[in-house]
Each structure stands twice: as structure tokens, then as C-alpha cells.
From TrEMBL:
Source organism (scientific name): Chitinophaga jiangningensis
Name the UniProt record assigns to this protein: Resolvase, N terminal domain
A Pfam family it matches: Resolvase
GO molecular-function term, one example from the UniProt record: DNA strand exchange activity
InterPro entries: Resolv_N (IPR006119), Resolvase-like_N_sf (IPR036162)
Resolvase/invertase-type recombinase catalytic domain segment(s): 3-119
Length: 144
């Protein structure tokens, strides 16, 4: 099984940035070694998780859309390393599922629905998100 690793840390201090990225990278590599997963590619971003308009993600996403070879997994350390924007998270996950790519955090054993519960409070405070609406989006996405 092959996986791509997504590593995102938002830091203004270059030394801290390196430490946070290295910690995530080490955890992901160890997870892959333990589970006998081959690492195909590593993607790094130093941007906010508020949306998917990030240089590393955009370049990666464009490349997998046009590539005939895709990973089975996209791994990251936790849901908030991948995204903190629930609607965009649901949409991106759905698109990747259609490409037969499973997105998965390694630090938590939470299901995607548990991540929605956890992050819905944070998102609701920032933008008055209607949690029921996103639950319905999630349920529709599960039917794909």
C-alpha cells in the first residue's frame, strides 16, 4: 500500500516551523514503517488551515488529479493539520474518495464524524456555521 504524507505547520518563526514539521514528518514515517506502508510523496505547507488555498496543497492536488498513479492513502497527523474548514474538508474528502484515496489522521482514532463534532464548535464560533447543514452534507457524502 502506498501513501502520501501531508505536513502542515503555520509558524512565523523558521526554527519553530522546522521543529513542528519535523515532528509531524517523524510521526508519519514511523506510522508508515510500523504498518508497512510505502511513502510515495511528502507534501509540506506553511499556511492556515482555514481553506485549501495553500501552495503545497494546490500543487499536490493538481498533480494527483492529472496523474494515472495515485496513493491509496493520504496521511496526516490530525484532522486540524489537514483542514479546519468543515465544508471544504467534506468536499475535499469526497473528491479524494472518488479518486479512491482514503484520507486519514494517524494521531487520533476518531472517525470523520467525530472530527466534525470536534471542529464544528470552533468553526461555528468563527462563522456561525449551521452544524445540521454540515451533518447533512456529511451524510450525503457517505452515500457516494
Amino acid at each position: 500500500m502506498k501513501a502520501d504524507l501531508y505536513i502542515r505547520a503555520r509558524c512565523d518563526n523558521r526554527a519553530s516551523q522546522f521543529i513542528f514539521e519535523r515532528r509531524q514528518e517523524d510521526a508519519l514515517i514511523n506510522y508508515c514503517q510500523f504498518n508497512k506502508i510505502t511513502i510515495r510523496e511528502k507534501v509540506f505547507d506553511n499556511c492556515s488551515a482555514g481553506n485549501f488555498q495553500r501552495p503545497g496543497w494546490s500543487k499536490y492536488f493538481d498533480s494527483i488529479k492529472s496523474s494515472s498513479t495515485k496513493p491509496a492513502l493520504l496521511l496526516f497527523t490530525s484532522w486540524d493539520r489537514w483542514s479546519r474548514n468543515i465544508p471544504e474538508m467534506i468536499e475535499a474528502r469526497s473528491i479524494l474518495r472518488q479518486m479512491e484515496i482514503t484520507v486519514m489522521p494517524i494521531d487520533t482514532h476518531d472517525s470523520f464524524s467525530e472530527a466534525l463534532k470536534f471542529y464544528s464548535h470552533e468553526s461555528e464560533q468563527r462563522s456561525n456555521i449551521d452544524v445540521l447543514h454540515f451533518y447533512m452534507l456529511f451524510m450525503n457524502e457517505m452515500k457516494l
